[in-house]
Design goal:
mainly alpha; binds zinc ion; Four Helix Bundle (Hemerythrin (Met), subunit A)
């Protein structure tokens, strides 16, 4: 990583990617905020909510929890990517230190790994 800090990439538009990361982070934060209330415990009072609609509500809640979980993971990836930008390490695979493909970064500026390491999966 010390080496990478001195060899920032000039083949990718880091400020533009950074702007996209910040925009996406702010959007995710808004989504997390706005859907917080939909994660409130499901009303179990059967006199008020029929059995079928209660199941719908439980299912919707489970999906909401999963969506929120994915958003938190994405937020973590974005924060990490912004950290790498600050450190001058952006654009290099966190696993093997090789440059991450330009197209890959354009599709997902928060990608922490090169395509080879990503396909090899975690914990190799
Ligand atoms: Zn790699």
């Amino acid at each position: 990583m010390m080496f990478n800090a001195m060899t920032e990439r000039d083949d990718i538009d880091v400020p533009a990617l950074k702007a996209r990361l910040i925009e996406r982070r702010d959007e995710l934060r808004r989504l997390v905020e706005s859907s917080a209330e939909s994660r409130a415990p499901v009303e179990l009072d059967q006199s008020r909510v029929g059995r079928l609609s209660r199941m719908d509500a439980l299912q919707a809640q489970a999906m909401s929890v999963e969506t929120q979980r994915r958003r938190q993971i994405e937020l973590g990836r974005i924060d990490a990517a912004l950290g790498r930008i600050s450190a001058g390490e952006f654009g290099f695979c966190v696993t093997c230190d090789e440059p991450i493909g330009k197209v890959r970064l354009r599709l997902d500026p928060s990608a922490p790994q090169c395509i080879d390491c990503a396909q090899a999966g975690p914990g190799r």
